[in-house]
Write a structure and sequence with these properties.
The protein is an alpha/beta fold. Helices cover about 40% and strands about 10% of the residues. The chain contains 14 helices and 13 strands. The chain has a 6-stranded parallel β-sheet with strand order 3-2-1-4-5-6, sandwiched between helices. Helix 5 packs parallel to helix 6.
């Protein structure tokens, strides 16, 4: 099965590489001609650890079509990964304004209309399946995308006799795109309500993914799949919000460590599902989750649900970030403020939806302009020569070995450092560990001292 991949950005290109790594012949297409020319020369634009080597290993199976029609004509499966953006001011790196919004569906609507037009032009007897990867709110496929395809395919009974439509979003993270694509928890596939059409696209889905991995394919209707995708991402945001709520609570309680509390909760895998996203730290981030929560709130209100749980996630994210800014102001004592980390997580250069940038903007609104450092994005940032307050806003491993000086304060929401490993005269504030009583503090010193000696 040859595969056309439409949209070769930071998500599409690594996934296309993953398909080629598994032996698929991939025909890529993107409207950004300069981007495609770079890929043809062997350049890798998305910042993704290991991607350059992965591309080099399968480059002979990666082809680039000169037109959308050419890519579709040479393929049986067409994956469409066109962005459905929100405006930059709503990407999650700024405070939420409380207004739920749908995605901008116009780019994906135009794209699938063009795909349908190409399908209508082909009369070669080949059945083709269009897999929509782009994130949309529930109801979008049947209300917006399918009518656009039916109009431009000239077939009011779409999907047509020679093509099918699957809603097939991925669950992947920046910096681990290829790994997540090739080793998912499951494949999500939404199909048409017509039984014959569904049977055909289910077979096509199995043909596409069956040779990539042995993970289960969860088949359902279009709207159900749209709902699963957004519910998945918003639930992750809810877990982060809860874990950070535990962190703040423990920080304010005597003799209470959030890693102990959350660590016990993570043992409840039968009823609390999984251990991931259950550590206190910074807010949920990235180019997807914040906007997905806002879009899910839009969908919930449009449907008229009684309590919009999705809206509280972004509101809570802002409130928790404001509390971190409070801590910085409490410990600042007139010194410069440095945020260590700008990317929304280690291993990526993406700042869309970054909780570090949100914190920086929250501080700036209070009249505090922090120095921003990042090992990838701002490695040459000039750090203060005099004692300063440092806040570890992205848990890059390199910050575990950062050199601090006497008089510095280090606020660590990840608890990735140890006071015993810092120079004398450096104040260390591990967020989520409350004040210690004298008895508790004395008991806690000895094990840490032994651990330090063992490492030495």
């Amino acid at each position: 099965m040859n595969v056309a991949f439409i949209g070769l950005g930071k998500l599409g290109f690594p996934c296309a590489v993953g398909l080629a790594m598994r032996g698929r012949t991939v025909w890529g297409y993107d409207t950004d001609a300069a981007l495609v020319d770079g890929y043809r020369r062997g350049e890798v634009t998305p910042f993704e650890p290991g991607l350059a080597d992965q591309y080099a290993s399968c480059r002979e199976r990666m082809h680039y079509a000169g037109s959308l029609r050419e890519a579709i004509a040479k393929s049986e499966a067409i994956l469409v990964a066109v962005p459905t953006p929100h405006a930059p001011m709503h990407d999650g790196s700024r405070p939420y304004d409380g207004v739920p919004r749908d995605f901008d569906n116009e780019p994906i609507r135009r794209c699938v209309a063009d795909v349908a037009r190409c399908l209508a032009d082909l009369d070669d007897g080949v059945f083709r399946t269009v897999f929509i990867v782009s994130t949309v709110t529930p109801g979008t496929t049947i209300e917006t995308l399918l009518p656009a395809m039916a109009e431009h395919a000239g077939d009011p009974a779409a999907p047509g006799a020679n093509w099918g439509l699957v809603y097939n979003p991925f669950f992947i993270g920046q910096s681990t795109v290829v790994r997540n694509f090739l080793d998912p928890e499951f494949v999500l596939a939404g199909h048409a309500p017509d039984h014959r059409a569904r049977a055909r696209t289910e077979r096509a889905t199995e043909a596409l993914y069956g040779s990539l991995h042995d993970k289960p394919i969860r088949n359902m209707g279009w709207t159900e799949a749209e709902c699963v995708k957004l519910c998945y991402n918003t639930y992750l945001g809810l877990k982060v919000l809860f874990a950070n709520g535990v962190m703040e609570l423990c920080h304010k309680l005597d003799d209470c460590d959030c890693d102990v509390v959350n660590g016990a909760l993570k043992l409840a895998t039968d009823r609390l599902i999984s251990t991931k996203y259950m550590d206190g730290g910074m807010a949920d981030g990235g180019p997807c989750h914040g906007r997905d929560q806002m879009a899910m709130s839009f969908a919930a209100r449009r449907a008229g649900i009684g309590f919009d749980v999705f809206d509280i996630i972004n509101r809570g994210r802002d409130e928790q970030t404001a509390w971190l800014a409070d801590l910085i102001e409490e410990h600042r004592r007139g010194r410069d403020v440095v945020l260590l980390g700008m990317a929304f997580k280690p291993g990526t250069n993406q700042t869309q939806g970054s909780p570090a940038i949100l914190l920086a903007r929250t501080l700036e609104a209070r009249g505090v302009t922090p120095v921003l450092h990042d090992p990838v994005l701002a490695a040459d940032a000039v750090l203060p020569a005099t004692p300063a307050l440092y806040f570890i806003s992205t848990n890059w491993p390199t910050y575990a070995g950062h050199t601090f000086q006497r008089g510095d304060t280090v606020i660590d929401p990840w608890r990735m450092l140890s006071a015993n490993d810092l120079p004398e005269g450096v104040e260390y504030v591990p967020i989520g560990i409350g004040p210690r009583s004298s008895a508790h503090a004395a008991a806690a010193i000895e094990p840490k001292t032994q651990s330090a000696m063992a490492r030495g």
